[in-house]
Design brief:
The structure is a homodimer of 409-residue chains. With 409 residues, chain A is α+β, with helices and mostly antiparallel strands. Chain A folds into 2 domains: 10-277, L-amino peptidase D-ALA esterase/amidase (4-Layer Sandwich); 285-405, ArgJ beta chain, C-terminal domain (Ubiquitin-like (UB roll)). Chain A is built from 11 helices and 16 strands. In chain A, the strands form 3 sheets. A 7-stranded mixed β-sheet of chain A has the order 9-16-11-15-12-13-14, sandwiched between helices. In chain A, helix 1 (59-70) packs across helix 2 (89-107), helix 5 crosses helix 6 and helix 7 crosses helix 9. The longest helix of chain A has 23 residues, at 255-277. The relative contact order of chain A is 0.14.
């Protein structure tokens, strides 16, 4: 039951010149469902990515990093669901390489121009024969307007496909920015989300694209949490196809940089929030805004301490204004010299705690009224400085336990 | 549905000379239940405590720290359930002091010789009139053999009272060590547990008792987690009544120190494990043993990363050997230079992952067999050094969500 989230209208997802998408039902884990996506990118495109910091990163993540580091022009992305190809040892690495080799052969490019991605169960062998057999049918479906189907193909426990699109004026040109993402559990991205792909038809040099990608990740996927677990396969990749005729953006000082960054940030944030809205078992969408911190890092620690607290999350699920749990989470965020007597807590328009204690005018029914809604702003003022941050999260419900207790069955 | 845990047999709980316990039904939050405990300690006793590191610590914790720091001989402990007296501002502090003043008046001691403790809902005013009115009836029930009733009195969401007792030979004397604890949720103690009290009839000087207390906390309550939340009220206090005729233990070098430490550690560990066995919604008891770490801190980070992972905990609830989630949690523990290829994972006697990948002989049915049991050893070998640690935790079930969504109703 996603929170205020519906499947994207395919007509609203703009094609990106120079980018084609095709899918297959490869039977990786289950039959009769789209589970293999191939994206072809025109020659001359640039690509940048950020990846999970989990030390048990999956084989495809290792290969992606290698291929991007080598600086070869990216020509294709291959994404399978149903299996994460993580915790699979040397055979897993070999299978990730085989995926690139076969895709390269079919598209007449070099293997290092292919980026592989996998998502699904960890510690199980990737059924590589079925994956390879699915590549040709996927490629046969290549079309620039297949973004909605692409979003559907990469779903795992997602209940709604996630896609977003913008057209933005960059300099004198219109640029299309379109992206897809998947993810609903094991969500506490650390430099990236489960899987996110954004493409645009602007031309951007590789170092500038890397800066754009990192900024977008930091403002979107790096600000969400469903359950505090970081996946082995988190990847966020941005493609600039260069199909537009405008000269490339080659410096972060180019005035067009900020215009483009804004559009990418918007698309990435919409996708990141969609992941939270469709968080496993989610019934509420919470924005945690922490202000008055000594640094952004400090604000972030407080925000995540609230976002990760099972007690806060279950109270929100119950619409129970048991708001002392939020104070406990703030106190538990590892700021050794935090002065509790300077902390203010607000829920939407309700002032709950003043100077560390219950506000004398706070009435339980006001807290209950806010918690009955599906979208809740938790605002904390620490009284320590001027830094702030925002994190998005969802509640913890029976649905989460059911989904994760039954995930493989 | 606690895991292999039954209520203590009152006959097995040894009285500690110099310690008397009495309770009342004060109606702090609900009527007709024991919710106020007073413990009187003989003159000449020493006391030591460790307390929550949560910066939103409760008013009684502040007062306990003050009174212990002042070095006055402790003569009484007062514990109420139903209200945490946390997030209650200056009124909360006043109420904690009032509790000490009235108890002192009734027992003819000084207010700073009383230690107050509260546990229950945060951010709600303590009903101080009802608490004060309950003191006299509690004191009227003073008796040395009321440990079982005391354990019952301090319960909140606990389903089973928690008490443990040992008789140990220290030097030439027999010493009785008896303790009680409470706690089932908001459990990730940081230098202490929710509430734990251990008393013995040995004589121990204050600095030595502090060393004993810290060691016992580090080996017991500081190694458990139910949900990763640290309470505002965590307190662990050890009393040495000095009622025994043996000369006081005045140095950690005294050969009797290790004998006594072992008994206190045993009692504290039994109580700490009882908290996990009665963890909110628990159906499984897991021991996480991390070996081959570069330091104990490193081992502890890995152990808690596993113990706190909602995905690991829900898989255990489902008896689903989705064991890649354990690898993801290990990789997610913040050890930047962890080499996944050196990691071994065992479940009881089953070798699941060898050198970072699935063991070729591992069969799913072997994992499933282990997970069907109620007591599971998760053993991780990091291959980095010789340090190790053990953490105890439980699974995450529908019961946890139900209990915490309904806690105040």
């Amino acid at each position: 039951m996603p929170v205020n989230l519906v499947a994207p209208d395919p007509a609203q997802l703009r094609a990106v010149a120079g980018v084609e998408l095709g899918w297959a039902e490869a039977g990786i884990r289950k039959a009769n469902r789209k589970d293999l996506l191939v994206i072809r990118v025109a020659a001359g495109a640039t690509a940048a990515g950020v990846f999970t910091q989990n030390r048990f990163c999956a084989a495809p993540v290792v290969v992606c990093r290698e291929h991007l580091a080598r600086g070869s022009a990216v020509r294709a992305l291959v994404i399978n669901t149903g299996n994460a190809n993580a915790g699979t040892g040397p055979t897993g690495m070999q299978n990730a390489h085989l995926t690139c080799v076969e895709t390269a052969r079919l598209l007449d490019v070099a293997p290092e121009q292919v980026l592989p991605f996998s998502t699904g169960v960890i510690l199980e062998p990737l059924p590589i024969e079925r994956l390879l057999a699915g590549l040709a049918p996927a490629i046969a479906r290549f079309a620039p307007d297949h973004w909605a189907q692409a979003a559907e193909t990469i779903m795992t426990t997602d209940t709604v496909p996630k896609a977003a699109s913008r057209q933005v004026k960059v300099g004198t040109q219109h640029v299309n920015v379109t992206g897809i993402a998947k993810g609903a559990g094991m969500i506490r991205p650390d430099m990236a989300t489960m899987l996110g792909f954004v493409a645009m038809d602007a031309a951007v040099t590789a170092p500038v694209l890397q800066a754009l990608t990192r900024e977008a990740a930091d403002r979107s996927f790096n600000r969400i949490s469903v359950d505090g677990d970081t996946s082995t396969n988190d990847s966020f990749v941005v493609i600039a196809s260069g199909a537009s005729s405008a000269p490339p953006i080659a410096s972060t000082g180019d005035p067009r940089y900020r215009q483009l960054a804004q559009a990418i940030n918007d698309v990435a944030t919409q996708l990141a929030q969609a992941i939270v809205r469709d968080g496993e078992g989610a019934t509420k969408f919470m924005e945690i805004l922490v202000e008055g911190a000594g640094s952004v890092g400090e604000a972030s620690r407080v925000a995540y301490s609230i976002a990760h607290s099972p007690l806060v999350k279950t109270a929100f699920f119950a619409s129970d204004p048991n708001l002392g749990r939020i104070l406990a989470a703030i106190g538990n965020s590892g700021i050794g010299d935090l002065d509790a007597n300077r902390v203010q807590l607000y829920l939407n328009d309700v002032w709950v705690a003043r100077d560390g204690g219950r506000h004398p005018d706070y009435r339980e029914e006001d807290g209950a009224r806010v918690l009955k809604g599906a979208e809740i702003l938790v605002r904390v003022q620490l009284g320590r400085g001027t830094a702030s941050t925002t994190v998005w999260t969802c509640d913890l419900s029976h649905g989460y336990v059911s989904i994760n207790a039954d995930y493989r069955s």
